[in-house]
């Protein structure tokens, strides 16, 4: 369900919109969704469509980049752009263009390793960069620290529910994880299409396959299977739009 300036948007209302052809399926999915998306203008809505398209593209690109999964203590990055803190955070070096540093993760992924929450934030940054361009990105994100769910100025929220839209970040919980492999207590993923997810460290898989992988990292005599949590994490698009304009 989409509300623009207080008005409910119907499928027929968008029939003559001059937007990129590839955005129409996502637009129709959001219109048909029981989730309520509120915007102050059509421009905000189109901004979200582009962000979501770029989240999916960035997730696929990170999968292809060669960037590895690693625990915080084993995190590493390209030293030309990033320093690694004792806690395992990647900190943008002084006066380094943020846009170039984020792009480098995708262009030289073999120089990087980080865990799955960090991967989601990296994907979000790249999606925003692709949407707004280098100049505005560099102006708005001059200081970046890549560490867990550390995301500086990015407006991110998590909402309960079992209805999801392409580009959402979801979480597979693994309550009976092996304490000696605590990094597999769960997995943050990006929904790429129906029942297809990017999971950093596992790959691009169905929900069933992700659960199967997580179950292989459970403690001895585990009784509870991994499962998809009934929640979604999203960028707050109206807030982000106001920041960028």
UniProtKB/TrEMBL annotation:
Short name of one Pfam family: TGL
Keywords assigned by UniProt, alphabetized: Acyltransferase, Sporulation, Transferase
Gene Ontology molecular function: protein-glutamine gamma-glutamyltransferase activity
Keyword presence, Metal-binding: no
EC annotation from Swiss-Prot or TrEMBL: 2.3.2.13
InterPro entries: Gln_gamma-glutamylTfrase_bac
Enzyme class (EC, first level): transferase
Statement: the UniProt record of this protein carries the keyword Nucleotidyltransferase: no
Reaction(s) catalysed (UniProt annotation): L-glutaminyl-[protein] + L-lysyl-[protein] = [protein]-L-lysyl-N(6)-5-L-glutamyl-[protein] + NH4(+)
Family: Belongs to the bacillus TGase family.
HAMAP family in alphabetical order: Tgl
UniProt function note: Probably plays a role in the assembly of the spore coat proteins by catalyzing epsilon-(gamma-glutamyl)lysine cross-links.
Annotated protein name in UniProt: Protein-glutamine gamma-glutamyltransferase
Native source species: Bacillus atrophaeus (strain 1942)
